[in-house]
Amino acid sequence: MITEETQELVDKGIMLPLMEEFYTIQGEGFHKGTAAYFIRIGGCDVGCHWCDVKESWDAGLHPPTHIGKIIENAISSSKTIVITGGEPLTWNMAPLTTNLRERGCKVHIETSGAYKLSGEWDWICLSPKKIKLPTEEIYPVANELKVIVFNKHDLEFAEEQAAKVGKDCILYLQPEWSKREKIIPLIVDYVMKNPKWKVSLQTHKYLNIP
């Protein structure tokens, strides 16, 4: 059980429930193939049944960590930082991102957009979920839209979401990993017929890296 003082710091975004942090190759979307330092923040109530990091859902399992420590670990490895989860926008991202950018970092986020946007971002990857839709404010500022395709109906959902983002937002369809053999042909066919979309694959899983 955390103290009242610690909880106050968490509420302010000075401490965050850190699940893990690691330096690796970005495996998905626009920046795939590039080196980046990932900060995975615990806590998510969106609850995708196919989520591959369900251990991130319960923030209470992940110790509140001061952002000063998180920042020092990050900048020792890379100037490109990806904040993911869980759902990072559950928390106030302003203190962490402001300090990272002041240290010369480019700061990216991977989010469902289900919570109010906080923080300063160089790249926003919006990956919306049907069970808890994004807030309206995030659509016009998203740099890329990444829709996970689990079944054919998800393509309809993808088009509904694409209609809400800005004209320069890059559109990706990504097969859900456990269904990839069935879904990849569906996505390939759809992208060929609708070339405004691109295919995103979880290349880090093919490379067997985090």
From TrEMBL:
InterPro entries named among the record's database cross-references: 7-CO-7-deazaguanine_synth-like, Aldolase_TIM, rSAM, rSAM_sf
Residue ranges of every copy of the Radical SAM core domain listed in the record: 31-210
E.C. no: 4.3.99.3
GO biological process, one term: tRNA queuosine(34) biosynthetic process
Keyword Protein transport: no
Cofactor(s) the record lists: Mg(2+); [4Fe-4S] cluster; S-adenosyl-L-methionine
Annotated [4Fe-4S] cluster binding sites: 44, 48, 51
UniProt KW Glycoprotein keyword: no
GO terms for MF: 4 iron, 4 sulfur cluster binding; carbon-nitrogen lyase activity; magnesium ion binding; S-adenosyl-L-methionine binding
Cofactor notes: Binds 1 [4Fe-4S] cluster. The cluster is coordinated with 3 cysteines and an exchangeable S-adenosyl-L-methionine.
Keywords assigned: 4Fe-4S, Iron, Iron-sulfur, Lyase, Magnesium, Metal-binding, Queuosine biosynthesis, S-adenosyl-L-methionine
Binding-site positions, substrate: 25-27, 40, 84, 210
Pathway assigned to this chain's UniProt record: Purine metabolism; 7-cyano-7-deazaguanine biosynthesis
HAMAP family: QueE (MF_00917)
PANTHER family: 7-CARBOXY-7-DEAZAGUANINE SYNTHASE
Subunit and interaction comment: Homodimer.
Family from the record: Belongs to the radical SAM superfamily. 7-carboxy-7-deazaguanine synthase family.
Name of the protein described by the UniProt record: 7-carboxy-7-deazaguanine synthase
Protein's gene: queE
